[in-house]
Please model this.
Amino acid sequence: MRNKDYFKGKKVTVVGLARSGISCARLLAKSGAVVSVTDSQDTAATRAARSRLLTYGIKVELGQHTKGLIRGRDLIVASPGVSDKSLPLRWAAGLGIPVIGEIEAAWILSPAEVIAVTGSNGKTTVTTLIGMVLKEAGKRAVICGNIGNPFSREVDKLRNGDFVSLEVSSFQLETIRDFKPRIAVILNFSRNHLDRYHSMRQYLAAKTRIFINQDSDDFLVINRQDPVLKKAAGKARSRLVSFSPSAKFNANQAAVMVVSSILGIKRSNVLRVFRRFKGIEHRLEEAGKISGVRFINDSKSTTVDATVWALSNVDYPCILIAGGREKGNDYAPVRELVRRKVREAVLIGEARGRISRALGGIIPLHEAASLGEAVRIAFSRAASGESVLLSPMCKSFDMFANYEERGRVFKAAVRLLARGA
Model:
């Protein structure tokens, strides 16, 4: 690891006990820090995590936040989902204790060259493809970050000369301090996360933090068709490189081509990866076929733009399953595609009322109390040759722990339906 003694002897509290919090707490303990963790949830999952962390000598507080785990600390590490309005971070601010995120903590220790990818849509696909291209070119690379594999989980395996293809969210970028990727990629920018940000300007400010520490030795890769990003990139000190979709390559592939060119990777390596790539789980994933009806798991689509992309890539008339926790979305952009591609829709979750009002009068709408019920209703309304598409346009947290769990529940409901059929 780089900067091996950076955290040695420091008293650090990690706020949040999800995947990144667990991995970061372990990494900090291995680095010689005196680590505590606080989480407001006291569940079977957090209790299991606490048991695992106790073996590292880490103190874990569940079901509450107490000031005793903040006062006297040298550093606070916040998990991505923790708002700066949360009690621990407010206490830290009042006490003058610095706060960083898991991405920053991992970057301090990582010896690898980082390629960081952000954007409103397409991050996981591009991050995965870049990692695959690096491996195809014979380089040691890991794929991690907001993709479900925390950066801090990989750090102690990395060596000089390795590469990290890192998906970073706006939430993670809020808490960087010195984080400096060699290549920063911003794929696109559209309305999202207005449940967390007061305005689109504030959301853009979080996204563009990805290049704030870059200099003339680094690269910033942006979509040249996005006027908002072109304007924002004018503030960057790094070398600006742009991409755009073409007849041969979609926007995600075009971004990967540009990054590969910067790294000196042969075009033939990139094309081989594109040919082999079967997509990622929960993104337009085939989930089964029953009586001629295709089921498509697009649980990862948590924005309206992502669902617009999904509908644009579904060839058959479909029954749409949508809804979840509201993010301040504007559903108007999906209306025209719904009119053309969707025959009926089944709505679930907290946002179903707003979606119903946005789509009312266009197509028949149904409501379901659970995702399993939605699958059954959708199948009953679908005809052979049509598709049932789960593309929620919303977060999952009203009914599920994350979009992965939502996607797994959808696939399980399809398998159960197939057995019954």
Summary: Residues 403-420 form the longest helix (18 residues).
